[in-house]
Amino acid sequence: MVFRSRRKIKFFVFLTGIVTLLILASKWLQKADIVNLRLWVDIPSSFPWRHCLQEYSGIVTLLRCDKDEIHQLFNKRLVPSSNVHISSFRLHFTEEECVEPNTEGIVVVMGCTSGRWLLKGSGMMVWREAGAKTEVGRCFTSIRSNEKIVMKPCEELDENQYVEFGEYIGSELLPLCIECWRERQKKLRSTELLEYRKIVTKTLSDIADTEVANLGVANQGERRAVVFYLDSKQAISYLKWWIRAWRFIGLDHARESFDIIVMAEPAIVADLPIDCQEYTRQFNAQLSGPGRCIYKQYIGISNRDSSFDVMLNSMDCLIGPGTDLLKDYKLLLRSDIDTFPSPYLLGYWPEQVVVNRFYGTTHGSKIVERILRDTALAAGLEHMG
């Protein structure tokens, strides 16, 4: 028994030593020249979030990471720097070509200059022109998938500016230094929670003040409406089915006082069904009569600010700029467009907020479940699902 225990202890010490060496090796790799390197950004406004840097006809963009895509391979070559805490390097695509910003602030593949990239501890890449003693304060910034990479002022909480370096180990894309990556993600999460807590606290305070101000004041509206956000032709096909079901079950009858409000991106307005009429200033949400389908041109929050996820567009269309037409409704139903109404809505006038807690997104897919676990890990959370 004693002999076996000693063997276990020796094996544990050996294993610990191997792990330590791997961590030290990973940290050393961050400060060394590396070939066939991959860079990625977890784009907050695109799902799945992880997209890799790729050369495309001389332009640098972010596309889905692909182990077999050679245009996603780059070479990192260190440049001597007086600051030992910041990695200074050039990013080569070929021997003579580098990834650099052009005069218009667009990141491209061009002939290498004497400039260099500086990698900050948060994972932000700052450009320093040749001969300059300080960086210009502009960072490598993604807009969204399959669009140009641009240089924008560095903002510590802008997730579009966090760049990771890694390589494929088998079929999995991993950071060069996993421990460094985890520590960086943990620090970023703590900073974001601290900063956004101020915003959430203020918002909750404003809501409480509004509720107190309206205490005892009855809602003047007498109609209901479902509110949709549309941004594609596929969404229009769903809308047509919703309208058909709305009429089939009699939800459009005058006694139901149920309207359909469509907040549509300008690019698809011309393809909307003739059942829907454009909003005008003469629109009156309190007017009695059969249900109506009304549309209004609307630019979603992810198109106004690329730092927002596209999923928030269907929430923003309830409270964003230009949504005043909704204030006179007694009840609003927030729903995705790929649904349809059931007869349960007939005569349904709840007195308080109703939330469906049975919504699911994995649909039993192991791939989606793995993405959720990876996302939780990246945010420093333990996935419990």
What does it look like?
- The chain is α+β, with helices and mostly antiparallel strands.
- Helix content is 27%, strand content 25%.
- The strands form four sheets. Strands 1, 2, 3, 4, 5, 8, 9, 12 and 13 form a nine-stranded antiparallel beta sheet that branches. Strands 16-17-15-14-18 form a five-stranded parallel beta sheet.
- A hairpin with a 5-residue loop joins strand 6 (97-101) and strand 7.
- It is elongated and about 75 Å long.
- The model is unreliable at 1-6 and 8-30 (pLDDT under 50).
Would you summarize the structure shown here?
The chain has 385 residues and is of the alpha+beta class.
What are the salient characteristics of this protein?
single chain, 385 residues, alpha+beta, nine-stranded antiparallel sheet, five-stranded parallel sheet, 27% helix, 25% strand, elongated
